[in-house]
Amino acid sequence: MSFAWAGRNAVVTGAASGIGLALSEDLVARGARVLMADIAEPALAREAVRLGAVHRVCDVSDPAAVERLAAEAKSLFGTIDLAFANAGTILNGPLADAAPAEFDFIYAVNVRGAWSTIAAFARIMREQEHGGRISVTASEHSLGFQHGGAGFYTASKHAVLGLAEVFRAELPEKVRISAFCPGLVATNLADAARPADLPQPRESQRAFGRAVQAQGMAAADAARAGLDGVARGDFYIVTHANAHAAAERRFSEIDAAFAAQAPVGEGADRYEVNRIVAEMRAARRDS
Ligand SMILES: NC(=O)c1ccc[n+]([C@@H]2O[C@H](COP(=O)([O-])OP(=O)(O)OC[C@H]3O[C@@H](n4cnc5c(N)ncnc54)[C@H](O)[C@@H]3O)[C@@H](O)[C@H]2O)c1
Q1: Where are the domains of the chain?
Q2: Other CB atoms within 10 A of residue 193 CB
Q3: Contact, 26 vs 220, CB < 8 A?
Q4: Is 107 a catalytic residue?
Q5: Is 184 close to ligand 1, i.e. is its CB under 6 Å away?
Q6: How far apart are CA 2 and CA 34, in angstroms?
Q7: What is the 18 CA–ligand 1 centroid distance (Å)?
Q8: Which of 65, 195, 205, 234 keeps 20 to 30 A from 132, CA to CA?
Q9: CATH architecture of the region 9-239
Q10: Ligand 1 pocket mutation pick from 17, 145, 146, 156 by most atoms within 8 angstroms of CB
Q11: How far is 161 from 166, CA to CA, in rounded Å?
Q12: What is the per-residue pLDDT across 124-154, written as a single tens digit (0 to 9) for each?
């Protein structure tokens, strides 16, 4: 059965630019009501007015602000059908030379932001009879792709996929979660602002980043693929064929390591923690 978008209530974070803006635009075009959230206030207000959406300023790295966003969305819309935990940021530089504050910044926005956004909307959706759908913008970096120089970003996107997998296991079936894993998309990501107390890139580095980013897929095409994946209820939503090769390379290396070092055979599930926990729980119930 096809998914009906018209009249749905949706919240998008990171909605002032790039993929989040394109998601908002496509959602409005499909007939959804959209609450756009971002930290970049003038752009957010301008784009929301253009699209006929409502907007709220929200810094996703602050769980209390995300909580307020979810509460406001609920009182505004009554029910929330769709949440897009999309806000994210990047910074570049070799890991061995990185500063702890850079790690904290990326993890606060990309990981704590994704977790708190998914959690806040999941708590609302699990109380709704019809549940809801949540999409978190992960990346091809979550799947085994990486380019040297964005190590904290790569690691944060692995963490985002890990969070999505655990949410999928923990949430009731009526709350569906998708991990949206695009590759290079032409957005403003390479120009992402970073706190003034962090090392700043030289203008020539920014210009190079902008030029690379501009070669990406159009944000509208990525957003369309994202929404079509949410409509199908897919967990993995992928867009760029190059990421498949990276995922395959990673998996074949893992596969070969297991074949050589820990092949499947008699008693292979002896240390399987899910079985152990289930058996211990069952034994406790019986006693
Ligand atoms: N562009 C790509 O190549 C690409 C590929 C894969 C995944 N992604 C992911 O897509 C998402 C959107 O990025 P984009 O490429 O559209 O970049 P973008 O910079 O164009 O848009 C990101 C938006 O997020 C907002 N934002 C940043 N920090 C925030 C915070 N703390 N709270 C709220 N909003 C915040 C920014 O103000 C901006 O409007 C990110 O999670 C990014 O990691 C991007």
Answers
A1: 9-239
A2: 10
A3: yes
A4: no
A5: yes
A6: 20
A7: 7
A8: 65
A9: 3-Layer(aba) Sandwich (3.40)
A10: 17
A11: 9
A12: 999 999 999 999 999 999 999 988 789 999 9
